[in-house]
Structures are given as C-alpha cells and as structure tokens.
Amino acid sequence: MDAIHLHNVSKHYPAFTLGPLDLTVPTGSVVGFIGENGAGKSTTIKLILGLLMPDSGSVQVFGEDGCRDLEHIGVVFDSCHFPGDLSARDIGRVLSASFRTWSAKTFEDYLTRFDLPRKKPVKDYSRGMQMKLSIACALSHDCRLLLLDEPTSGLDPVIRDEILDIFYDFMQDDSHSILISSHITSDLEKICDYVAFIHQGQIALFEEKDSLLARLGILHADPSVLSSLAPDAILGVRRGQFQTQALVERDRVPSSLPLEPVKLDDILLFLARKEG
C-alpha cells in the first residue's frame, strides 16, 4: 500500500491549471517534490491534506480516499503558524486536546533535544527555533507520514543538517514516509529516494533519485555537436554567449564526449527552461 496515491488529479483556477497528474509516495520512502515557484507544489500538498478539493481525479492516503487519518500525518510548512503569544508549553496543551495519539513525553523529549524554551512566546523564537517547534509538534502524535513544504527554507546549513538528521531518524521505521517540497535541492539529494519534478502543473518526471543522477549528464559543446546527437538524447539546452550546455542521456552520447555529473539543481534548471 502506498502512503499517497494521486490519480488523474486536476484543479482549475482562472490563471492556472494543476494536472491532470499522477503522483505516488511509496510506503517507506522519501519523495522530493521539486519545481519552480507557481508550478503547483503547494496546491498539490493542500489537495493531499483535503484543504482543497480536486475538480477531478482521486486522492488516496494510506489506501483510503481523501485524507481521513490526520492522527498519523505530520505537516510542516515553510513558516510557523502557531499564534505568536503562545509558548511551546501552551501549544503542547492545545495539541494534546486535538490528537488522540498525542504523546506529551515525545514532545518534551523533542523540546529538550532542540533546546527549545518551554515558556518563551513563539514570536520571540528565531526562525530555526520555530521550524524545530513545528517539527516537534508534527512528530509527537504517532505520525507515519510527513508532508513538508519548504521545511528548511531560510535556515543556515548547520540547522538544515540538524533537521535532516531528524528526518533520517524518522525514516528508520519502514512504515514511515515523507513527501518533501524544497528549493534546496542539495538537501533533497541527501535524503530522498525518489524525485518528482512538477512543471506548469504537470508531473514532468518521477524517478528513483540515484538512477536519475546516474542516467543523466551535462555536455558542454558547440551547437554543431549537439545537432549531431539524436533529438531524444537531449532533455534540455542552455545557450550561453560562448558555449552551449545540454542535459543529456549518458547512454545516448558517444563516449568520446566528456560529460559532467548532474545534480538535482541542474535538472530543475534545464527542464524548467527547456527549449521547445
């Protein structure tokens, strides 16, 4: 059973249409969700949570239609949404009344691990402290699925690594899953099993991360060299003043042409700016 399965899902707005798209988060895996601003990442996450209803298609979470099991879903957005005047201790009391599966001990353990003051108003926390508090809350009610929308945005590398370690620990249980949307693709390379690339409301790519990075490469070449390759060997092109770069299928390029390793950031840039 997949943790998340979207099939033929569409959502229409006056200036934007999401889908139809298919997206799967296999149980026991971390799926990195990448795409440019406005591509539909946050809309997709809201559809999964039931905050928006699709115009067509189906959304399944834990094998059931819709998002019915909020007890076992942890959500972290790119900013802290708790009232600023509340303290961590206040928030713990509120959430203990909201979740049957709330564990005060787990919450206290995370507050200690993150060195978060219990009585200080959340509005006086740093951004890193606020994100740690959001993660502590998400992980303190028997969560099996984490939905993360830019959880490390705006944080320094030390705090980002600390937060990624938390996600590593969470994934030691094979029944746990994560869907993480982020523009910091270097973070996704460290933790993700699969990558889903959304572009203009469509899933343009879904693949196992290591296979994807091994399959593709970057070729620096003159346009004449690129024109000699099969069209389907080239996934994207970036033309500079003096040289052209191309994202290519490694096994479709002659071995005499040197290729650079590819990163997720490269794939995002090439595919988002793909020439028609």
Architecture overview:
The chain is α/β, with parallel strands linked by helices. 30% of the residues lie in helices and 28% in strands. The chain is built from nine helices and 13 strands. It has helices spanning 41-49, 88-96, 104-113, 127-138, 157-170, 185-191, 209-215, 223-227, 264-272; strands at residues 4-13, 16-25, 30-34, 56-61, 64-65, 73-76, 145-149, 177-181, 194-199, 202-208, 216-221, 234-239, 244-249. A hairpin with a 4-residue loop joins strand 12 and strand 13. This is ABC transporter domain-containing protein. InterPro entries: AAA+_ATPase, ABC_transporter-like_ATP-bd, ABC_Transporter_VariousFunc, P-loop_NTPase.
CATH homologous superfamily label of the largest domain: P-loop containing nucleotide triphosphate hydrolases
**Beginning-to-end CA distance, first to last residue:** 38 Å
Number of helices: 9
Q: What percentage of residues falls in helices of 4 or more residues?
A: 25-40%
Estimated radius of gyration: 21 Å
Question: Which range does the strand content fall in?
Answer: 25-35%
Number of strands: 13
Please supply descriptive tags for the structure shown above.
276 residues; alpha/beta; Rossmann fold; three-stranded antiparallel sheet
Brief synopsis:
The protein has 276 residues and is α/β, with parallel strands linked by helices.
Question: Topology of this protein?
Answer:
Blueprint: E1 4-13, E2 16-25, E3 30-34, H1 41-49, E4 56-61, E5 64-65, E6 73-76, H2 88-96, H3 104-113, H4 127-138, E7 145-149, H5 157-170, E8 177-181, H6 185-191, E9 194-199, E10 202-208, H7 209-215, E11 216-221, H8 223-227, E12 234-239, E13 244-249, H9 264-272
Parallel strand pairs: 3-8, 3-9, 6-7, 7-8
Antiparallel strand pairs: 1-2, 1-4, 9-10, 11-13, 12-13
